[in-house]
Amino acid sequence: MKIDREARILDLDPRNPDFVANPYAAYRTIRETVPVVFWKQYGFWCFFGYETVASALRDARLGRSLRHVASREELGWPPLPEQVRPFYAVDDLTLLEQEGADHTRLRRLMNRAFVTSQITALVPQLTQVVNDLIDRFPADGAFDLIPAFATPIPLRIITGMLGVPPEGGPQLLEWSHRMVRMYHFGRTAEDEAQAVAATHAFCAFIRNFLAMRATGSREGLIGRLLNARDEGEQITDDELVANCILLLNAGHEATVHGLGNGIKAIMESGLDPGDLLADEKAIARTVEECLRFDTPLQLFTRYALEDLDIAGIRLARGEKVGLLLGAGSHDPAIAPRPDHFVPGQATRHLAFGGGIHFCLGAPLARLEMQVALALLFRRCPTLRLAAPPVYANSFHFRGLESLMVHRA
């Protein structure tokens, strides 16, 4: 890593294995040297301090999309390459990529699935899912907690919420993994081809499912969205498809990483899980520290919707900025010992973003982690690492590829 303090330029390959394994040491150096820096490899300005990132997330002059203020031609951008247009034709219709009135309209509809009463009502189902998975753990020998525990929990819950048959989960998971490769630094032509193929297949699956729901049972969120459309709410079939895909992807991807990263953090902390998860308040504090300490989503990008000055830099309309959520959550301004796992030391973090794009599923993710972590360590009090945890080769979405443990 090289930092030109005078020019405020960061030279750091986000694919560097040491950085992927532990980006927080680099964040500390960057934040202490120049907390707003032009990241050479990405080609845009990035913010690393808590207050700067939090402020940018709430700044109405920054947005996830520019379509409502200017076309690509007006911004001087080249046309999208033909080979990736099918992916963006779907991605651009999701709630995450909307601003203004369209964002308000879609968020109001999708919020119906995440009201407190509906999330709380999931506790019995979630408890059963977690207990069933623990029942299947091998009594002897090492096993990988990511496929055995962290992955199936959010996948089963989100498919259940949407009313999608659970047997389709593994295929949906594969499509999701291929689609999110589009957000990774240095994606290849093969990554793009696989993402587009997965997009086509996922859309066909959802359209077929919508057709069945249209004339049959309308249980689950998909059914409620269909009812809303039929009752006059403004949502097109294409928006229905795109946002069902978003919910399935976002509904499990980050929580899988949150669970895996959190279990690793607890086991490596040297603290007694029994104390960390002793009661509801302790569980809530521990889950928040898991999210702060090893944040699943590290980088969130926004565009300047107009020419503006922010954090001491000048941005022209259309310029992109990178908000380092994990770096902001490791700022000593909010956590006195940011690189240590200390539940309760921070009352704030950036794991769920902020502003109008604050994570829609945050209450669900918190509940899943609270129930899963408490039950796991209550039923497996002697759980230990069997091998060093291995992070997936991805900086953007930070999560474990394997977490080998044993119960002895």
What is the fold's blueprint, element by element?
Elements lengths: L1 E3 L4 E3 L5 H5 L2 H10 L2 E4 L4 E4 L2 H9 L3 E2 L8 H4 L9 H7 L8 H11 L5 H5 L2 H13 L7 E2 H6 L1 H11 L6 H12 L8 H27 L4 H11 L6 H33 L3 H4 L3 H14 L5 E6 L3 E3 L2 E3 L4 E5 H5 L32 H18 L4 E2 L4 E2 L8 E3 L1 E3 L2
Parallel strand pairs: 2-3, 4-10
Antiparallel strand pairs: 1-2, 3-4, 5-7, 6-14, 7-10, 8-9, 11-14, 12-13
Helix pairs in contact: 5-12, 8-10, 8-18, 10-14, 11-12, 11-14, 12-14, 14-16, 14-18, 16-18
Task: Give a brief rundown of this model.
The protein has 408 residues and is an alpha+beta fold. The protein has helices at 17-21, 24-33, 50-58, 72-75, 85-91, 100-110, 116-120, 123-135, 145-150, 152-162, 169-180, 189-215, 220-230, 237-269, 273-276, 280-293, 325-329, 362-379; strands at residues 2-4, 9-11, 36-39, 44-47, 62-63, 143-144, 299-304, 308-310, 313-315, 320-324, 384-385, 390-391, 400-402, 404-406.
